[in-house]
Amino acid sequence: xxxxxxxxxxxxxxxxxxxxARPDRGLLCRxxxxxxxxxxxxxxxxxxxxxxxxRSKHLAPPISEASAMKIESxxxxxxxxxxxxxxxxRLLQRQHARVSEWRDRPAELRDxxxxxxxxxxxxxxxxxxxxxxxxxxxxxxxxxxxxxxxTRSTAAVxxxxxxQLSAQRVAVEDxxxxxxxxxxxxxxxxxxxxPPAARAVxxxxxxQVEAIATRRRRLIDGIxxxxxxxSEQVCHGCGQRAACxxxxxxxxxxxxxx
Length: 258
Prior knowledge:
258 residues; alpha+beta; Trna Endonuclease, Chain: A, domain 1; 3 domains; 5-stranded mixed beta sheet; 6 helices; 5 strands; elongated; disordered N terminus; disordered C terminus
């Protein structure tokens, strides 16, 4: 049934008057005055009342510091991991090199200790001999054995190999004060994945080595004339070819004519 009375606004009418509402004001949204003598509460800022730009500025420093600490921690762990991997790789390389060296050494030296690798020694003789030793091993008896490594394709020992090892023995004995064996080894690389080939040689005496060193000194000083070798390849690969001088070249021509 339709309401015949005019619609009354909410907060107006007899009920509102009974509750003490004034006609010009509604019942709702009326704010009661503060109690007399009560202190005013301080204004509290609400988060949604802070502009978005200011909120980002307040939150940025803590977030930036946390991110920087996290990145720094990851960087430190990365360095530690890289160092550990490098040390492990070096240890593996050394272990592989030791195994390869033990496998390639002559069978007579399997029980010996490797005491030096590519080391330089100097004798105390009148004409000092400076020699570079590829390998030196100490047997259980205390005797030192020398090994010379060659890269030639043919496993053939030359006279120059014996002279070189003999000079090394003189230098090692003088500097290390040890006894070096009269027997040494010349090792050649294996071909087609074959193991290296080792050839045992008998070394020259100290007197013979010193005689060769004296002759070399006299050749350099021009006191003695050089002799033409059996093969010209010896001169082509000789480090003293320039020291022989013009006398050796003239002698070479005269020897070829005979």
